[in-house]
Amino acid sequence: MSLSCESYVCDARPDYPLLITAKRYWVPGLASDDPSALTLILTHGTGYHKEQWEPTIEHLYEHLAGQSPVRVRDVWSIDCPNHGEAAVLNEQTLRWGYHIFNWEEYARAVHIFLTGQGRGIDVDFSKRNLIGIGHSMGAVALILCSTFSPKPAFRSFIFAEPMCFPPEPYGLPDKFTTFLTTGAEKRRDIFESREEALLWLKSRAGFKVWDERVLKAFVDHGMRDLPTVDYPDKTSGVTLKCTRAQEAACYRDHTNTGRVRAYNYLATLCAVYPVHVLYGAVDDYIPSQVKDYILTEGTQGKHTSARRVQNSGHLMVQTQPKGLAEAIWAVLEGVPAPVWVLSKL
């Protein structure tokens, strides 16, 4: 299925210093003008970018092409301001004052975009029926976006592996954040070409399990030509749009107040909106007992549903776009979720 897309840049300067990039997706003939039709708002995880969602979006539209009662007007995917195309536009601004990039910054960008506080967006989202769908850091951004005023016109939320946790011993240890920070700082980030980058990534264990379409999107949209501000002397090859420093900046604060605020607000959000949680059936990044704690104590049992995406761990957008799309579609169609079985650990 062929997606149509249009790129947008939201400029709220001088009130907000960072440019915000997004893409709108639709399939001609399937975009509904019904006033009750949904507008899906997608946010991504740390180190990735808005185009990582494209295979999932394609599978969602395959469901839409069937005899479903669900109507979707369009789908929007928004970059975190230090990721993807936004990172390129903001590279000079990001060089000072963003050694730590709190996840609330992503929330602020999404809020500005959806509430019409910047130039360059010809859509009044206050008149749309918004469904927020966030993965990892992106889920935290959507939770926090709902704490700002004016409130965006969300009808419900779907959070895929949300990275908001209680303090230890029920949450993730600080050493896990250190592991992520160190990994980002040491990540290979220069390649002779996109072709060489794709071959190298395919040879790495962590990337071998990715859906090939997502991996290609990472190379096509997550990389840029050299030279850059960080590498002014490199005159050929490609590097990451989200620099090593900026990815690490998203992990560096062990007590990331964005994650903390999102966890503390989760039960309140669940009491006001339908909130659906998707976890991977493989407990890799988030242990099963932490998932259980979030669904019992974090949401106080007020979430609407919880599902597992089979054959997937934390990176379900990257590894299981079809399974993720099926889980999202089940939520949109109101299919009852299986009973969540608590871990015996």
TrEMBL record:
Residues 40-327 form the AB hydrolase-1 domain. It comes from the Eukaryota. Coiled coil: none annotated. GO terms for molecular function: hydrolase activity. Keywords: Hydrolase. This is Alpha/beta-hydrolase.
